[in-house]
Here is the input.
Amino acid sequence: MTAAVAVQGLTRRYGAVRAVDGISFDIGAGEIFGLLGPNGAGKTTTLECVLGLSRPDAGRIAICGQDARANPRETSAKIGAVLQAAGLQDKITPREALELFRSFYPRAVAPDGLIDRFGLREKQNAAYDTLSGGQKQRLALALAFVGDPQVFVLDEPTAGLDPQMRREVQDHIRAMKDAGRAVLLATHDMDEAERLCDRLAVIAGGQTIATGTPQELIARSPSASLEDVILQLTARS
Amino acid sequence: MSAALHLTGLSLKLNFRNRMAILYGYLFPLIFLVAFWAIYRNDPVPLALHVGQFLTVTVLGGACFGLPTTIVGERERGVWRRYVLAPVPHFIFVVSILAARYVLLVTAALLQLALGLAFGMPLPLHPFDLWLGFSLVAFAFMAMGMVIAMLVDNVPAVQALGQCIFLPMLMIGGVAVRLESLPAWAQHIAAFFPGRYAVEVLQAAATGTGLSHAGFDFLALGLIGLAGSIAAAGMFRWDKSFAPNKAWLAVALGMWLVVGVLAEMQGRITVQSAQDTQDVGTSRNYLAVKPGPASTPESSWRDVSDADYDKIAFDRLPPDTGIISPVSRADEVPDPVILPELDRIRDALPGWAPGNVADPVQRARNLLMIAAVPDILQMEQVERFVPRLVFARLQAVIPPRNLPKILYWIAMHPDDGDDTAIHQLQAFGLPDVTGPAKPARGRIMLYAFKLLGRLTGHIPPL
Here is the structure.
């Protein structure tokens, strides 16, 4: 069966620095794959390469069997993304943003359904800069859904959110998996990674230093938590 | 297509929600218009001779500040980075932003023109040419705005770089200060700025002979716009973390240089004054009754009779308050600034040799030339007072019985006689007129009609 996301030998250099150095992984439909690692490990660069925001120096990326470099438009239509920066204008309203992004995609979801699903009905006509942090993140998730994607790429989607909102966002991520979508999740939150991800890749210095399910990684040091394991792995690398 | 329309529409909506954008995009141009009106309030026709200037200021402001501020601001916020993820050709985003900016510029210009009309400005003579010229100016300056947007990383830098282009263009680039008011060295510098060509194109469409006589200016703006577009495309970046290849800047600035050198080579640098060479038609245009085939024309001015005056449609003459052949009102007081200039003309009239030649027709024709030339040169405040001095001199040097006949004769035969007096006006402090004398002959005809009308009672007296 074709992987929803297939990354092989991904390399990205910035001058003499190898931000990503030969990373490979596959993500199947209905799977949440987490990228873990310290700041500067190469997580965001990996996501940017998958999204087409950064051009790899070597390696291959395929989305639903299609080469991302050869078919950028076709593959980007299959991806929904939540980036660290919202990328919206101050005065745009949630409804306008959804209507706008809907016009970008060939197989788009009606904004009304997303407005209800993400609890934005009351704020649908409010300016973006008047929304709370949680509402902004709900909108970011709604925008990721607007193109009815097969793959979700999420860059620290719960960073800076209160516990209640974090839980809500995590529920939405689980819903992506339940709908048979592949999810590539970069996170610092070990608890989130343990509870959400089916498999994890630990990255440090642009390289994969460990992969496996959360349970497999924890099993490397039975008395420790996932966080301890990751810290040990990254410190060793 | 749907994406482009959505984005264009949304860009416009967001612009109207931004107070600063409204201030810069609409209020600022209107303030400039009012300032022009206040400065040139003594013009016989309010604002008409400054259409090119105030419209250029609007486009320049939108291009140097509005467009790059929007693009850089959105790029800083990651909006463009977000757009790039969408399965839409990237040029759609650029085209949509430019289309929205074009709409903003056009609406700002229409507002300016509407306010200008409310101030008494006449309608532009060539509206289609004005739209075409405005679009070309917008193209050239928006390309420049895109170059600015690609060069700088943040909004404050847009303001800094924008001012570096905006202010020199206004002051010595022929935009806010007219070229003819600039010293020669500044006129040379202005040839290397696009603002000069923008003003020329727009003014030609508003009060001149249209774009057909602004070929070089049109070409200059086209080349500058094309080079700016190429440079902006070469430096394009949707994320500020990418460094632009600044070598492309040489393409944009190089074209400014090429256009300036071309202007130098073609001798287009020094402008003494903008000439209004609009065709005023022939004497037949001002006849109420067209002469039939059986009618016999007079063979001499002496044969002109009172009945001939009645055949003239004096109401078809351009109004005294217009741009063409203006005449000041009797109670109108000249600005003290121009009094020395008028005194010089009045003092020089008696001793001016062409005004004392033996042939009374040629004498009158020569004297009328003194009124015609300031009109052609659009010597704003002076031009409408000079005819009064000339009329007084004509009445002093030609017997009252003959003057109407001679004026009629000159008006009906504008192409007769000698026109070399056009090059003998230094005594009055008037600049030399380059190019053919035909436009001056046309104005002589109009002023002959106007004085004749006053002498015969067809037009209220001076």
In short: Chain A has a mean pLDDT of 91. The CA atoms of residues 113 and 215 of chain A lie 36 Å apart. Chain A touches chain B at residues 51-53, 73-74, 76-77, 79, 81, 83, 85-89, 91-92, 96, 99-101, 103-106, 127, 147 (CB under 8 Å).
